[in-house]
Every structure is written in C-alpha cells, then in structure tokens.
Design a protein that fits this description.
Layout (H helix, E strand, L loop, with lengths): L3 E4 L39 E4 L4 E4 L30 H5 L1 H6 L4 H15 L3 E4 L6 H15 L4 H8 L2 H4 L1 E6 L1 E6 L2 E6 L9 E4 L4 E3 L15 E4 L10 E2 L3 E6 L2 E5 L2 H4 L2 E5 L21 H26 L3 E7 L3 H14 L5 E7 L9 E5 L4 H23 L16 H36 L9 E4 L6 H13 L6 H7 L10 E5 L62 E5 L1
Parallel strand pairs: 15-16
Antiparallel strand pairs: 1-2, 2-3, 4-18, 5-8, 5-14, 6-7, 9-10, 10-13, 11-12, 12-13, 15-17, 19-20
Helix pairs in contact: 3-5, 3-10, 3-11, 8-10
C-alpha cells in the first residue's frame, strides 16, 4: 500500500489495540502515555501507520466524543434497544392530529412550494481540482450515472419531506445498467412500473444512543426502521441478517453498517434539547416544521371550530314564533309549524304573548345576526394564525398571495429575497446529504480507485445576471484579458461543443495589407481609379480581374458574405 497506510482500528495481530511503541532510540515518533495500549473504536480510522507498524498520529480522544450525548440529561428513559423516544410535538400530543395536519391545504401549499423550488433547481458535480482532467472525467461519468436514477427530481423531493417530519429517508435497490457502453452500479428498477428506490416515512426511523450498555453489533447512531408486529417477534431474524428489537413505539429492524449505505437519510434542523427535557433528546436527529407549528395549528383548529359553531347556530338569524300565553293547544300548533318550517340555519324560539288590547298574539319575527363577530373570527384565522404559519414556512407571504405594497417600496423584492434565502438553505442541506450518502457510495462502487477524489454535488441556487456578466466578459476581453470559455458558456446556459458537434463560428476577416482599405484585396477592378488599372489583380470574389477598361462590371458577391458584411456567421462542421 506504499509507504503509509491508514490505520483502521485493527492492529496487524488483529487485537484491535494500538501496540506499545518501540523505545525512543528506535523511533522518535512514539505515542503519548495516555494513548498507549488504548482500546480503539470499531472500524474507525484513527491514524497513519508506517510500514514498520508505528502510528504517526492518532485522533484526539481516540476518535470519541468528549461526553456521550445521552449523558447530558438529568435522567434516561429508554427501552432495551437503547433508542431515543419520539420528540415531535405533534406525535407526542396526538397521532391523529399529526397525520391530519397534512390535510390542511394552507400548510401543504407552503410546504410543497419549498420542496418544488429546491427539487427543480439544476445540479452538477464539482471536482476538487478543476484543472485535473482525471477529476473532470470522473465528474462527467458520475453525472451520467446519477442522471440515470429514475425520477431523480422526485427523489430529491422525497428527501425534503424532512422539512416537515424532521427526517426522511430513501432506501435504494442497486443494480447494473449499461451507461455509455459500460456497466455501472446505481439504483435500478426491475420493471417499468417502479423506480429502484423507495421513500421511508420520517416517523418510521429510530436511532440508538450509547449509554455504555449496547449489545454486541449495536453502535451509536445506528438506524432502525419500525416494522409491524404481525409478522415478527422480538429477536426474530429478517432474512437471517439482523434481529428485530423492541422500542417504545413497537418493534424495529436495525440496519447493519453495510445496509445503512443502501439508504439516504436527510435531516432538517439538528439541535440539542434542555437538560431536564430528555423526551426531546431525539431532536439530535432532526426537527421539522410539524413540531414547530403544532400548537399554533391546534389553536387555529379550535378557533375554526368556534367559528363553524357560530355559523351553524346563528348565521341565519333567530326566529321568534309567538303564541297566546297559557294556551297549550296554540303552543303545540305553533311548535309543529315551526318544526316543519325549520331551515335556513336559524334558531327558533317560542315566545308566549300575554293577552292585551293590541291582540297580536300570533306571528313570526326574525332577528338578523351581527356580522362583526364573524369578520373578527375570520381575521383571526387568516391574518393571525394563517399568516404566522405561512411566514414560518416560507419566511413571508407575498410569494403565495397578493397584497398592496406601495409603488416603488421594494417590499416585494424583500419578501422574494427572504424566500430565496430559505430555498438556498434547503438546497445546501440537501446537496450535503446527497454528496455524502449517494454520490460517495456510487463513486466507490463504480470507480474504487478514485477514493482519493471527493466529488461534491452542487445545487445551483445563484441566479446570475447573464446580460451584465456577458457585458463584463466582453469588456475584459477587449482589454486583452484571457477569458475561460467554459465560464462564458455556463453563463449563457450552454456547453462546450464536442469533437463531432456541428457548431456556429463567427468568421474573422483577414488582416488588411498596409496602405489598403480594410476588407479589399490587391489592385484590380476596384483599384480606385476610373481607368480600371491593368486588370492583373483579383476582384473581391477571388476571381481574376475582367476587362482592363474602366467600365468593368463588379464581380458577383459570395452568398455567404454579402457586401459590407465580411464577418457574417456561417455553419461549420467540426
């Protein structure tokens, strides 16, 4: 492996411990006393080992955290599987509400707008060294492979469900496809009705923590997928590979390190929780919008229920049906009539009228409701709760609804800028996930000798002003600066032509001879005097001069180069 090799947690004798260093006289690079004979974490690259077995350096603290995350809470509430409990506010409060929140069109409008905007952005693979032809070729081949992933736009959108749930995953089923004449490994559908990948709902994912009591084969951060209890029991094996274990919300199948490489798991906001709040420790693995807005949405639903009840009871007004006081027969008849007449969402009240001189003991009176209460509730729903939720998801409101901003106020541009910042944040998060969990494994499986090259997937979020940039390129070019052709082509959204492509080329005029007008050949029919010269030259069409007389007719012009346009564009096959 050359002069050096990476030390991966296993000594040459397979003990898994760092050997005692030789004496100082044998090698000046010896380990500090606190690192000698240290137990090394499993499968963790810790240092570089020379051919003589000596480790030149070891990661600080042997590659471990200073303190386990679960130790930073005042108590631990767990199960035998040592998994974090569900920390999402909506799930903890009501599973039904957690699901029904996605039936709110106002929420889904904003959520899907964020997902679509990021998913539709262009992307490219960026090599570490742009000047390396090897890395450029690798990026080109990898781009072809990833572009062949079925419905890759939807692939990116599914990962962005983490914006809502806090985390979301995709499991890939890899296979071999012929791409550009070579067999390549990538997520491959088995038939035309599938994609070769499956989304994983964020609420199905669980993660282990390490409190020092993990069983053999388990490790910190290990991901599990919840499964139904109808098919397996505790300690059963799925495909004879891994045990099913119990969590606080049912059974889960925990993936091995190799199986985790088949999955892509995207996490939204990662944060720690308060010392006394161990129930939200799982925020370490992603917090989504659902958890943030749940109680706001809950109050909105309570307000909506109150409004609907008000409309049901009083929107049509109140009907007063009058009958003679003390007359039970009249009361019964009026009640029957009112019951048969009931409709229009009005409340009906029977009012006994005492006998008097006026004699109006029968009749129906309608009291219309006041609309101020309804308008007040409507404003609370739309302007308060609705806008607060929308602003949290989109950062503003003007990209989803119209509003007066004032001529030249710039408010609309400010709202758009805020929205674009959110999209850029989402895109940057997504490109980091795809680079590490999709691009890197596919690169290692298809090009194992390129492990030293780290490609990065970049999502193009910058909308450059092509017109202004091209003008800047032109001015720099006229000043004698050397311009990269690829940068110019990227600005106009094109690509450099290949060796077999048909291209448009601007034909340059030949340099003029001293003392001759630009764009003209030697002396001849157009020598400038009326006598026409001796006729020994060539006309602009390239043919020998005609008659020597002054009345020589001009030579026919080339169709591709009309008069006065010696620099016209032509199509040239390269």
């Amino acid at each position: 492996m050359g002069e050096n090799q990476f030390f991966s947690g296993q000594s040459p004798n397979g003990t898994g411990t760092a050997p005692s260093p030789p004496s100082p006289s044998a090698n000046t690079h010896q380990l500090a006393s606190f690192l000698q004979n240290v137990q090394l974490p499993r499968d963790m690259e810790l240092g570089v080992r020379q051919n003589d077995g000596q480790i030149n350096w070891v990661a600080p603290n042997s590659g471990a955290f200073a303190l386990p995350h679960i130790s930073t809470y005042q108590a631990v509430i767990t199960t035998a599987a040592r998994t974090y409990r569900e920390s999402d506010e909506a799930v903890r409060a009501s599973l039904d509400n957690a699901r029904n929140m996605r039936n709110d069109c106002g929420i889904m409008e904003c959520l899907e707008a964020r997902q679509r905007c990021t998913s539709l952005l262009n992307w490219h693979l960026e090599p570490e060294d742009d000047s390396s032809q090897e890395q450029q070729d690798l990026a080109s081949d990898m781009t072809k492979i990833i572009s062949e992933i079925c419905r890759f736009t939807e692939y990116k959108r599914c990962l962005q469900e983490a914006i809502w749930y806090g985390k979301s995953g995709i499991q890939n089923r890899y296979g071999w496809q012929n791409i550009a004449g070579r067999m390549r490994c990538l997520p491959t559908p088995r038939h035309s009705m599938e994609t070769g990948w499956l989304p994983i709902h964020g609420d199905k994912l669980v993660f282990r923590f390490d409190d020092g009591n993990l069983h053999d084969g388990a490790f910190e951060g290990q991901m599990g997928i919840r499964i139904g209890i109808g098919n397996w029991a505790k300690n059963d094996l799925i495909k004879n590979r891994w045990k099913v274990e119990a969590t606080e919300r049912g059974l889960a199948y925990f993936l091995s390190e190799a199986e985790q490489r088949l999955c892509v798991v995207h996490k939204h906001m990662i944060e720690d929780s308060a010392f006394e709040d161990v129930m939200t420790a799982n925020n370490l693995h992603g917090v989504g919008i659902r958890s943030r807005i749940y109680w706001e949405w809950f109050q909105k639903q309570a307000c909506l229920a109150f409004l609907m009840e008000y409309l049901e009871r009083s929107a049509g007004g109140i009907e007063l049906w009058m009958f003679p006081a003390g007359n039970e027969q009249a009361k019964a008849e009026v009640k029957t009539a009112a019951t048969q007449r009931m409709g229009g969402q009005r409340n009906i009240t029977l009012v006994p009228i005492p006998a008097g001189d006026e004699g109006h003991q029968y009749g129906v009176q309608i009291i219309e409701p006041g609309m101020a209460g309804i308008e007040c509730l409507k404003d609370i729903l739309e302007k308060y709760f609705g806008h607060r939720i929308k602003r949290y998801i989109l950062g503003q409101t003007l990209t989803s609804e119209a509003d007066a901003t004032g001529l030249g106020s710039g408010v609309a541009d400010l709202h758009l800028g805020t929205f674009l910042e959110i999209i850029k944040y989402d895109a940057t998060n997504l490109e980091e996930t795809l680079t590490r969990q999709l691009v890197r494994p596919i690169q290692q499986w298809n090009f194992p000798k390129s492990r030293h090259i780290r490609l990065k997937l970049r999502i193009e979020t910058e909308d450059e002003d092509a017109k202004n940039k091209m003008e800047a390129y032109r001015q720099a070019y006229e000043m004698g600066c050397r311009i990269n052709a690829k940068d110019v082509m990227d600005t106009i959204g094109s690509r450099l032509p290949g060796p077999t492509d048909e291209v448009l080329v601007k034909q340059q005029s030949p340099p003029s001879s001293p003392g001759m007008a630009p764009g003209f050949g030697g002396s001849g029919a157009d020598s400038g005097d009326g006598d026409g010269g001796d006729g020994g030259g060539k006309d602009p069409a390239g043919e020998p001069g005609g008659d020597s007389g002054g009345d020589a007719s001009p030579a026919p012009q080339d169709a591709a180069n009309p008069p006065g346009d010696e620099k016209s564009s032509v199509v040239t096959a390269v």
